[in-house]
Amino acid sequence: MAIDWVEDGVDKVKELLSTLTIDERWGVMLEFDEICPDRFAQMVDGAPDWVEWMA
Question: Cα 29 vs. chain centroid, distance in angstroms?
């Protein structure tokens, strides 16, 4: 789901993550990076402060 949301923008990813617990957030991001490293890199390029969202 997060992978599809990257196409809609960083704000959509932040919106999705805000509904999850911290453990779920990290799980989503780790899975995202593993499944689709190119899109994960795209998200990181567009939002280098993404780690701050995780707290």
Answer: 5
CA distance 4 to 7: 6
CA distance 4 to 52: 21
Please tell me the pTM assigned to this model.
Answer: 0.69
**Distance in angstroms (rounded) separating the CA atoms of residues 6 and 8:** 5
pLDDT digits (tens, 9 = 90+) for 28-53: 889 989 998 998 888 888 788 888 87
13 neighbors 5 (Cβ within 8 angstroms): yes
Distances in whole angstroms, Cα of residue 13 to Cα of each of 19, 45, 52: 10, 14, 13
